[in-house]
Every structure is written in structure tokens, then in C-alpha cells.
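[Automated response] Your request has been received and processed.

Submitted sequence:
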Amino acid sequence: YVQNYLTLDELEADLKKFSPEVQKEQEWKDKMDFVKYSRLNQPGQKCIDFTVKGHDGKEIRLSDLLAKNKLVLIDFWASWCGPCRADIPHLKETYERYHGKGFDMVSISIDDDTDAWLKAVKEEGMAWTQVCGANGKSYDKECMKLFGTNGVPSCVLVDAEGRVVSTNARG
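Generated structure:
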């Protein structure tokens, strides 16, 4: 909770004050990873490439999307997340307005229930690339870790060179 009110430097300094025993705990390691990856994903930084499987089973590589587009929005969401669902009309409008001009999106769901995720995608009419790590797959949470994101909704805008333009873009 407190990490929301600290700079990355302050958070890292506070984490380093913990005892060596605590520093062996997974939660401590996860917080240090958050600091590390958040720094890597500041606007202007080159983002980390990733590969996931879409809902159709085809591999999706961020670098492939970037090679075809000027901008790619990576949207982290879940079907059960009210704020995520409230953002979808804005995402749809943005996608429809700019997709033909070199803009693409990939939505990565953290749903644990594939049926609920597929139902939400259909209900919301989300026409862009969809990914879900449900049923034992973990790449959704791994992607969130790579982007220093630990909650939904969250979006990262990346340019054609793979540089982060914006983080936590919403609405």
C-alpha cells in the first residue's frame, strides 16, 4: 500500500532496510522486482519484448506488433474488474478512431476463469488482440511484472521503436 506514496528510490531504500531474513521472502523479492521493472518502464525507456499466445492459440510478440504499427497500447484488465469494464468503451473508441492510422492494442487479462473472460470479450465487443493466462498459464502475470504493473486496470503505450510513451494510461 505504501508504495503508492513513495518514489521508486524511496521504496527501494526502505526495502533495503529489512533484515537479511526478510529479504529472502518472496514478497520482498516481488517488491524489489517492482522497483526494477518500474524503472525499466519509465517513459522514454526501451520496453521489454514479450511473447504470449492469443485466444486463438497463435503467438503474439510485442515486437511484431510494433513492426506493423506506430503505437501499441498494452491493456492489463480482468472481466471481474469494474473499473476495467468502465474503461472498455474508451478503449473501443480509441481503437476504432486510430487503428487505421498505425495504432494497435493488445489486452492481457488476469482472469482465472477462461469462460468469464471470453464472455466479457464478446459482451464488450473487443475487436483487438486478446490474451488471457487462465487455466494455469502464468504469462499474464509475468507480463504485468515486466511492466512494473501490480494491479488492473493499467495500460502502457509503446511507440514503434519499442520505447514507453506512457504508463498507467486510462480513460
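Summary generated for your ticket: The chain has a mean pLDDT of 84. The two ends are 23 Å apart (CA to CA).
If you did not submit this request, please reply to this message.
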